[in-house]
Batch of 4 targets.
Target 1
Amino acid sequence: MKITRNRKRFVVPLNSMSDVAFLLLIFIMLVSLINYRREVKIEYPEAAVAEKTSLKNNLEIWVDRSGALYLDGDPSDILSIENSIIDTYQDTPDTRIHIIADRDTPFEYVNRVLQMLQLLQYRVVSFVVKDAQGQ
């Protein structure tokens, strides 16, 4: 008695491979466009003259209307901001600090940050404003 086996050849359908590759390409493009920068919703003050600074090596201190402080978008307090500035300065001394305050923020809240920077003798500080010409 002879035993015969039917060997079926399995074939992978290649018709949908281009669809899968296209969807994968779209997914990678969308993920690469995500902006990971956290921002606090504020209304920027205006300035007649504005100077653009580098986007690299920045530390952002946000001050909202109620005086709450944020360091790079994360809620923080004045002591932890001070410690972060000290640590950042030791790692990269050319770091620029951006103070971003709401247009309606009382100056006393911004002044707390400025006094802390003055005690640290930090000299590379910028105020972020909106250009009056709308640029």
Target 2
Amino acid sequence: MSSRVLVALRIAAPRERVFEAFTREIHLWWRPNPLFAFAHRTDGRLAIEPELGGRFTETYPDGSSFEIGRVTAWEPGAWLALTWRQASFADDQVTEVEVRFETVGAETRVTVEHRGWDSIPSAHVAKHGMPNTLFLQRHGQWWQALMGELKAEAERAP
């Protein structure tokens, strides 16, 4: 099995609203983490182009941008998948983030799976010298914090 991070939580909003907050409003809830910066900067604004094949980017105040990945699955209100790279990754190194949105009663369960970390060597700068287990734990904690921010954004009235 691939090295992965798996995080899930429930949000008191319809899944279409949560999907919208995750994709079109990512710049409102995403909190950068210097430990997991895409391009060694933390002052960028994230955006996801809302279509299959759309770009997942971080744009900086000077107008430059970094393409983090591409949308590999796009089913509004249900499912989203993105490739995920850091600037320090080699051409053959990529991870994938899959996000599922499921109705559970009056809430939406959001499940984030960030997989493919076994394609990134232990000694890679992106892992900061951490053993794989510790790296995945820290990365999972960051995703938990991000999902808390998503929850707060999605539960606000649009």
Target 3
Amino acid sequence: MRLTLDYPPVWLVGAMAAMWGLASFAPWPAWEGAAALWAGRAVILAALLVMVWAAVEFRRARTTIVPHEAPSALVTSGPFRFSRNPIYAADAAILLGWGLSLGALLPFVIVPLFVRVIGARFIRGEEARLRAAFPEAFDAWAARTRRWF
């Protein structure tokens, strides 16, 4: 078995570290205060709740949450009614909350880069596997449900 670290949480932690680095070494422009810190924490908490909700829906459907594995069901309930990728959207929201908490504007440049990486490394493959496994159902769901938000 080959060990791989190519999983979304690894990319999320890497993006958070990059944001922290930018805030630490180039804190321009910056802001201070408890309001931004608490707003950032609230966004992160909301995103974590969406992730848990999505994980519960995967469990109910008895399908994998692992991006590289073949799905056994198409999950369209819970947060998947609003987004085809609510966990990835929550990842992006965590980065937004983290940026607010860091108190600097420059780290936010990482968020669109993260979104592009996740789209290229995970979403395209996942959607191809879902379309192959559930062609009509996936196309109907994709037509009525946005990819991110």
Target 4
Amino acid sequence: MNIESRNMLPEDAPAIADFEKSMFGTCTDARTYKKSCLEEENIYMLAEDNGEVIAYCAIKALYETADLCNIAVKEGYRRCHIAERLLEECILRCKGQGVTRILLEAREGNIPALSFYKKMDFKEIGRRKGYYKEPCEDAIIMEKIL
């Protein structure tokens, strides 16, 4: 493995959208990624293995609060600390922009994600009833104070 992380570029958008669709069954439009990764307040990063996108992290930062929109790692690369390293780099960048807290929502049934976020010092602060569809599930709202 030759894993490197870097900022997401507009030309990465189609690969990220395809990756997201394969992971979650739905995806953000590639045009949205093209636009969002150019907005300087946003922190959009990816990890590659020999040029292949294997992970990405998308954070929208606005003033002192940031929203972790998505973080995902391809199946064969999980449990290799890639998400951890990617998120740590994004958190450092958030701090550099004056962000003091990061929020996220995760499916209540996504135990691996919830465990990962807890490991990364996110705390549960609330719940959104019926937030997710197909299947219908509550969202667990989590926060990390920086």
